[in-house]
Write a structure and sequence with these properties.
394 residues, alpha+beta, Alpha-Beta Plaits, 3 domains, 5-stranded mixed beta sheet, elongated
């Protein structure tokens, strides 16, 4: 599967997305021509090969009537969503790009409406409604269409903190509209003051990203670097990794905690409780806690849908006050049961197949039942089984 991973360690903005994604193209100049032929009024797009802290990347420049955002502000018109939508519909771009761009502006309009307590149709855009932002969003949508990843994964987003000056005055970081857009997306402030994530960047990410996590297992052959215009102590760049990932493997959650103040008997009871409540597996390992105290590490393997319930079960029935949850890919063979007829009675055989392999073993409880019922040892029951999974039972 073709996967695009966006590393948002320095936040995200529209121009950074354009820089990073265009850097993945064999010839970024083709994108520049596409943008300048799109017909956005008075807008010109250029790409500059530059660097930050010695790391090479692409910095995207969007100018309106020859003036780039951040230098002057005379082009920050107050545009309605309907006006912006009409501009996008009239551009020389594909219908897919138009749909994506309009949807992103709808997200921004709804966030602005929530921030200002007004209906969406009464919202007048400021920074995000200017023609340079139209270019940022349309350009990003064009690049996603050209690159055509099957899945887009993004890291948690750095927002920064402090205050930012906008048309309304000084606002906290993240700005109210940005915070609204970022709902449901994992974020963190970081250790440096400033606005790292813009509303445009947040809206683009929310529209395209399929999931948020650390970098997936990915065999990438291209890395694109988009440089931001602001100067921070942190390298202001967005990295985009494009490659192939085997995402067919199912994922499960691994819930773990450490316990040093419960008896082994009580912990054993928790294992049985977890298994009876849907855990795929549950087990304990001995470990050494702080101050040399002996303890146990409890691990529970869970399907995604059961994770919350199982986590609450652990918190309720153990002395732990905290849990760790890790996502893991799972190679799981499929299993089925067949009945094998022995001289001592029927014994179920568990057959597991997958990945070109086949394994089998008799069910332990059935062996015990047969041994007890016939007054023989477990070994005698096992030795009586000559099971061949390739042969069908009568």
């Amino acid at each position: 599967m073709k996967v695009l991973y966006l590393e948002c360690n320095a936040g995200i903005s529209g121009d950074m997305v354009i820089g990073a994604l265009s850097d993945l193209l064999d010839n970024p100049d083709n994108f520049t021509r596409m943008m300048n032929d799109a017909g956005i009024p008075s807008v010109k797009t250029t790409l500059e090969n530059s660097d930050v802290f010695g790391i090479a990347g692409i910095r995207a420049h969007i100018s309106v009537d020859g003036v780039e955002e951040g230098h002057e502000h005379h082009h920050h018109e107050h545009n309605t969503l309907a006006h912006v939508t009409d501009i996008i519909k009239g551009l020389n771009i594909s219908d897919k790009v138009k749909e994506d761009a309009i949807a992103i502006y709808q997200t921004i309009a709804e966030a602005e409406a929530e921030a200002h307590g007004k209906p969406v149709d009464l919202i007048h855009f400021h920074e995000v409604g200017a023609l340079d932002a139209v270019a940022d969003i349309v350009g990003a949508c064009m690049l996603f269409e050209v690159l055509a990843p099957e899945k887009i994964v993004a890291s948690p987003v750095r927002t920064g903190f402090g205050q930012v000056r906008c048309a309304h005055g000084l606002l906290p970081v993240p700005a109210p509209a940005t915070a609204s857009i970022l709902k449901g997306i994992p974020v963190y402030a970081g250790d440096e003051e400033g606005e790292f994530c813009t509303p445009t960047g947040a809206a683009i990410l929310k529209h395209f990203a399929d999931e948020y996590s650390g970098m997936p297992t990915l065999a990438f052959d291209k890395v694109g670097i988009g440089l931001g215009s602001k100067q921070f102590r942190t390298a202001n760049m967005l990295r985009a990794f494009l490659g192939n990932a085997d995402t067919n493997l199912p994922t499960i959650d691994e819930i773990t905690c450490d316990i040093d103040d419960m008896t082994p008997e009580d912990i054993g009871g928790v294992i049985e409780l977890l298994l009876s409540n849907g855990a795929l597996d549950a087990f304990i390992r001995p470990c050494t806690m702080k101050k040399g105290r002996p303890g146990f590490e409890l691990t529970c393997l869970s399907k995604k849908a059961d994770t919350e319930d199982l986590a609450m079960t652990i918190l309720a029935h153990t002395s732990t006050i905290g849990l760790r949850i890790h996502e893991a890919k799972r190679y799981a063979m499929s299993s089925r049961f067949e009945t094998y007829h022995t001289d001592f009675g029927d014994v179920r055989i568990k057959i597991s197949e997958g990945f070109g392999l086949r394994k089998w073993k008799p069910e332990y409880n059935d062996l015990v039942k047969a041994a007890d019922g016939n007054g023989v040892t477990l070994k005698e029951i096992r030795d009586s089984i000559r099971y061949d999974p390739d042969e069908e039972e009568d």
